[in-house]
């Protein structure tokens, strides 16, 4: 079996607010910020996984009709990303919460302990290397095109 067949698929949502800022979240033990995303379970579609992960990591309850499918992207040697775009009106940082945890050095840590809406042109400065490369090379242009296309 080749490396391609062994890659995991992580699914997530790029949330854009009324001010055309991207939602990023931060876990205290990480140096970088991330988007709501996570590994697709075997019994899920990418869309179902993205909706579940967004709910677990932000508390936002999204429906399929609220999401624009951006497709699947190469992320790193272990993982690909399937991403969706959501234009969100009226979301406040104070309304977001995380119900998802991971273990690190024998302790449970929240996957998101802080949230921020970041200007589209600055978001990559907070991201990890793999997400930063994808964002700079591909995602930022796609987001800007969708904003123009939809009149958001």
Automatic annotation (TrEMBL):
One of its GO terms (biological process) is AMP biosynthetic process. Pfam families: NUDIX (PF00293). One of its GO terms (molecular function) is bis(5'-nucleosyl)-tetraphosphatase (asymmetrical) activity. The keyword Hydrolase applies. Signal peptide: none annotated. InterPro entries: NUDIX_hydrolase-like_dom_sf, NUDIX_hydrolase_CS, NUDIX_hydrolase_dom, Nudix_hydrolase_domain. Residues 6-140 form the Nudix hydrolase domain. The keyword Transferase does not apply. Its cofactor is Mg(2+). Keywords: Hydrolase. This is 8-oxo-dGTP pyrophosphatase MutT, NUDIX family.
């Amino acid at each position: 079996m080749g490396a391609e067949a062994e890659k995991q698929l992580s699914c997530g949502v790029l949330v854009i607010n009324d001010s055309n800022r991207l939602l990023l979240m931060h876990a205290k033990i990480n140096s970088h910020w991330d988007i709501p995303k996570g590994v697709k379970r075997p019994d899920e579609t990418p869309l179902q996984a993205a909706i579940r992960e967004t709910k677990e990591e932000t508390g936002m309850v999204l429906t399929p009709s609220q999401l624009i499918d951006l497709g699947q992207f190469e992320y790193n040697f272990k993982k690909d990303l399937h991403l969706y775009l959501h234009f969100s009106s009226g979301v406040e940082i104070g309304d977001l919460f995380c119900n998802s945890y991971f273990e690190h050095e024998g302790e449970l840590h929240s996957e998101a302990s802080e949230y921020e809406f970041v200007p589209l042109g600055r978001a990559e400065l907070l991201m990890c290397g793999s997400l930063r490369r994808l964002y700079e090379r591909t995602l930022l242009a796609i987001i800007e095109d969708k904003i123009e296309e939809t009149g958001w």
